[in-house]
Amino acid sequence: MVFLPVMTLLSIGDQVQQGDYLFHSRFARSIHFASNDRLVSLVDEGIGPGPLNIVFRDFSSEEVTSCRPALRVGLNVVVFGSRRFRFTHNHCYRSNFEVDGWCPSRLCRQLSVFEELLTGTSHPQSLSFLLDSRRLKNFQSGVQRAFSKQILHGVQQVFSGNLLIGIRALKGCGWGLTPSGDDFIAGLLIGLTLLQKMQHGNFQNAIDAIFTASLGDNLFSNTFLDLASRGLLSGRIKDLISALMRGGEGAVRTSTEKLFAVGGTSGADLGTGFFMTVRDEGAAARRWGRPPKGRGSVEPFQRSRAAEIQLKGDAEAFVL
Q1: What are the tens digits of pLDDT across the range 135-167?
Q2: Domain annotation covers residue 191
Q3: CA angle (151, 37, 155) in 5-degree steps
Q4: Which of 31, 63, 93 is the last residue of a domain?
Q5: Cβ atoms 99, 278 nearer than 8 A
Q6: How many helices (H) and strands (E) are present in the chain, helices listed first?
Q7: Does 168 lie in the same domain as 62?
Q8: Which element (helix H / strand E) includes 19?
Q9: Which domain covers residue 72, as residue numbers?
Q10: What DSSP assignment string belongs to 39-53?
Q11: Burial letters 94-131, b for 16+ CB under 10 A, else e
Q12: Could you tell me which residue, 104 or 134, shows the higher pLDDT?
């Protein structure tokens, strides 16, 4: 008989839908289940809350998946294997974010702190070389140099006006669960949603086009890109944004350290894309701002390609 630890359900993301999910993959601190194009993740409390996370205390992925059970999410219950966990609305993690009560001068100061951490304490092979070229010395092999060259080319295209060309160069570039290029794009999308909430322009047409162009065969990347494009964030990203807009330097350092702990370089790669988008909101508005446009209600991964088609036909609008 397999012994299972006594687990406690701490929170469930607001994007977790009722239904049956099949086992997808397991890692040391997380188990992932899928249904069509939708992921749900069981994670330990060290990873923390997210839109599609069900967070447990005393979590053991190896023991839970010893028989690779299916997952069922009901109205007020989560079931996998022989385990049943009830939850109420008090367990729900809210993944959207607000920007009220922020100070422009504080945000500027805190972004400087964030940049210092990106270039000083992030993983040596993260995309922070885009902010400090001296970090390119950490990419020495032929494969690593080719990777950094493609990333640099893609980012230059994005920020010089050739938005979709740059996104396609970044898409899927790198290694790991979510490649660095995809993480950068997610950071870009989160930055645009933040600027939009700050009323520095309407970026919805660009957000939809970026999302459509960035979709690939990686279910993890597709999931995170979809959430980022809709402004649905993990607790770590929400904490960072809150610290940047309303907190002190200590809060920025603490939240950044937690972000950098995500994956190998994923947290820093996302942070780099986010920082490069937000640091100059005026330039972002000139590059990617669009007149208000109705978006409609669209299910994840089912969006029309209309935004991308329109962007192709009106590319001049995105060139400086």
Answers
A1: 999 999 999 999 999 999 999 999 998 999 999
A2: yes
A3: 15
A4: 93
A5: no
A6: 12, 9
A7: no
A8: strand 19-27
A9: 8-93
A10: EEEEEETTT---TTE
A11: ebebebeeeeeeebeebbebbbebbbeebbebbbbbbb
A12: 134
